[in-house]
Amino acid sequence: MKNEKILINNTEYNLENVLIIAELGTSHGADPVKAGELIEAAAEAGADCIKFQIVYAHEILHPNTGEVELPGGKIRLFDRFKELEVAPSFFAEMKEKVEKRGLIFLCTPFGLQSARELNTLQPKCVKIASPELNYSALLREIASYNLPVLLSSGVSKLGDIEEALSIIGENGGPPVCILHCVTSYPAPERDYNLRVLKSLSSVFGVPTGVSDHSLDPCLVPALGTAMGAAVIEKHFCLSRSDNGLDDPIALPPAEFAQMVKAVRRAEKAGPEATIDAMCSEYGKDLVESVLGDGIKRLAPSEKANYTRTNRSIHALRDINEGERIERDMIACLRTEKILTPGLSPSWEEQIIGLKARRAIRAGEGICLGDI
Hints:
Layout: E1 19-25, H1 32-44, E2 49-54, H2 57-60, E3 67-70, E4 73-76, H3 77-82, H4 88-100, E5 104-109, H5 112-120, E6 126-128, H6 136-143, E7 149-152, H7 158-168, E8 176-181, H8 196-204, E9 208-212, H9 219-226, E10 231-235, H10 253-269, H11 271-282, H12 284-291, E11 311-315, E12 330-334, H13 348-351
Helix pairs in contact: 1-4, 9-10, 9-11, 10-11, 11-12
């Protein structure tokens, strides 16, 4: 299924082919000059769409979630995300730059505040990242905007995707395209199981695409196109030696342009010729491994991230034994490094007003045995 079945085949952009997204994320480092350079470089490399992320650290994780090793030493992951926060006016400026280039502006919010700020910018569509696929309140908020949704499905099981789609579609819902993803950085090409694109499209009746975290610029994107992807997304950077969180697994301009050419070739050649060409270049064993069996399951490289990268209910502060749980005491956050995962976000409303059976430390996940 191509873009005409989702958001992207609209006359303003006159796109008839696979939509290619350059994921800038936070590679701009909150610098509008660098962000402008990234936009120009991605446009020149052949991107159709430029994607950003609206980051507020408190919407993503708890300050006690642990540390990350960076070239300058260890830093709290929370503090690293704090460094990436910018004013809403930054994204308004970036949207203007992107659209002046004739490209689609796309952005990922991570919580209700960032989603509402994004909505004021009147975007054409919204992207939901894999860890937020189970964040019920965010899904409902975004669905209420009635904007087409790109839904990444990394570190998820078939039932998780079904639940997310049911939430988005509760009141009819906007159009959705599922982006198959492997939540590992970098993701091994052999984990991609690209035949799952047709499986997901068949099961859920929606278009599918690929959000690719592998390092090779062509293998997964070209084979994903052969398997019917309507969208290909890759991280983009000016250099892998830059200090953006995702720069080490992103494609610099020359490699991104190489990927664009591979996708366009695959579109013209068709599935059979593309697979034959990739077998000649990469070897049949590797190509068959990348294509996989089409059964949706957690990839080996992301299994350990399940429940830790996804959202769950965490205590924002110390909660004493016997204390009644109020809304401002909890949040649906990523567990990440050293904390314990809690209940699914679907439990959020149900635990409000219940009493804690034991003392719960700030940051820890709240489980059934705790209430």
